[in-house]
Design a protein that fits this description.
- It is a single chain.
- This protein has an 18-stranded antiparallel barrel.
- By secondary structure, the chain is mainly beta.
- It has helices at about 1-15, 80-85, and strands spanning about 20-35, 45-65, 65-80, 90-105, 110-115, 145-155, 160-165, 175-185, 185-195, 210-220, 225-235, 245-255, 260-270, 285-295, 300-310, 315-325, 330-340, 365-370.
- It is built from two helices and 18 strands.
Length: about 375
């Protein structure tokens, strides 16, 4: 992070030192509140938060075919209500959202610092989203960054190789991985490998286990868009007792209704032989279905609907959302969440459960106002 501050300072204070140096300020101011129905006893009924994300993006220099650019953004967030009471968020958090430098030309990209590393074909379920912790049905979802080094080499117009080293934040350990992506028989095809040591990054799946992870994805279109993505986790020790396979099949199509009704559906399967007894509903086999529909209405209005269904425990969760453009750079989102269980409204499940402590699956309704800087 310090080197980014230094480069920014030199570029502004001594413009002659870098004639190509430029910068622009970006970010947002966001505020919102959610009313939680049937909030557990002792927890507030209203969940609220305020966020100010500010930073700079720009270029340090351009020479011949090379370019060095950067992004530096910080997040300041105040949270109150049941999420803060349950310990999901602190009442005040301040951290870097992004902070990276990227050196590139037409065939090579090297980016180091806090960055997003996202890939894969899935939309609602992301087996290959090793570092993805987004709430995909949330308002403008972003994944938190990881501190690492990523290199991309373009072998041809449609083939490239990626590699990355990510800090495990534990005993100088490093998560290391690589993938290749190309066009095969008209399909976007990717293969990935990653070594995952035990880490302190609690937002990662199986963060405390040493794993070898293999995966692939396929994506194409033939009237209807379709994709398949899968990952196999193998424990580095006693691997026969620590195997996990995640996969997703998906398709989407835009119907000629109004200004275009987009419909997307995915089926997610997860199988493992060693469930964690400390995690509720951590069965050996998981079957879930996700659906998303969205449609613009005019130039200022978009509605979306997310639906998730657990085929084993009967739980479901619907998340409707309306996006409305108020004025220059300002958007209003109305959103809600309604969960239940086809086996009985109070039956516990992965997607909806009632309990003495707030768990985040409770039904709610609210709004979010965002001003883009």
């Amino acid at each position: 992070m310090r080197i980014l501050f230094f480069i920014f300072f030199v570029g502004v204070a001594f413009p002659s030192a870098s004639s190509a140096f430029d910068y622009s300020f970006e970010g947002w101011a966001r505020g919102g509140a959610q009313y939680v129905f049937d909030s557990p006893s002792g927890f507030d009924d209203v969940d609220r938060d305020l966020e100010l994300r500010l930073g700079v993006v720009g270029n340090v220099f351009r020479k011949n075919e090379w370019s060095l650019d950067y992004e530096l953004k910080g997040d300041n967030r105040i949270t109150g209500g049941p999420r803060e009471q349950a310990g999901f968020n602190n009442d005040f958090e301040s951290e870097f959202f992004r902070g990276w430098l990227r050196l590139e030309n037409e065939t090579v990209k090297i980016r180091g610092g806090r960055q997003a590393i996202l890939f894969g074909a899935g939309s609602l379920f992301r087996p290959l989203g090793f570092f993805d912790n987004r709430n995909i049905s949330g308002v403008v979802p972003f994944t938190r960054g990881v501190d690492g080094l990523r290199t991309t080499i373009f072998l041809s117009a449609d083939t490239f190789v990626d590699s990355w080293l990510v800090s495990a934040d534990k005993d100088s350990r490093v998560i290391a991985g690589g993938r290749i992506e190309s066009q095969l028989a008209g399909l976007e095809t990717g293969f990935v490998f990653q070594y995952h040591p035990a880490t302190d990054l609690e937002f990662l799946s199986q963060f405390d286990r040493e794993l070898f992870q293999l995966g692939y994805h396929l994506k194409g279109e033939y009237g209807v868009g379709y994709w398949h993505e899968a990952r196999l986790d193998v424990g580095a020790e006693r691997f026969e007792e620590n195997l996990r396979f995640d996969s997703v099949w998906g398709a989407d199509y835009t119907l000629n209704v109004g200004e275009g009704l987009h419909v997307l559906a995915e089926y997610f399967l997860s199988v493992k032989n060693n469930p964690d007894p400390l995690i509720p509903f951590d069965d050996t086999t998981l079957h879930q279905v996700g659906v998303m529909m969205d449609q613009p209405v005019g130039v200022d209005f978009v509605w979306r609907l997310f639906g998730f269904f657990d085929l084993r425990d009967g739980g479901f969760q619907f998340a409707p959302q309306i996006e409305y453009y108020l004025m220059k750079q300002t958007y209003l989102y109305l959103n809600g969440k309604w969960g239940g269980n086809v086996n009985g409204s109070d039956s516990p499940g992965r997607l909806f459960r009632k309990g003495p402590v707030f768990n985040g699956t409770e039904s709610s309704v609210g709004f979010t106002l965002i001003y883009y800087i």
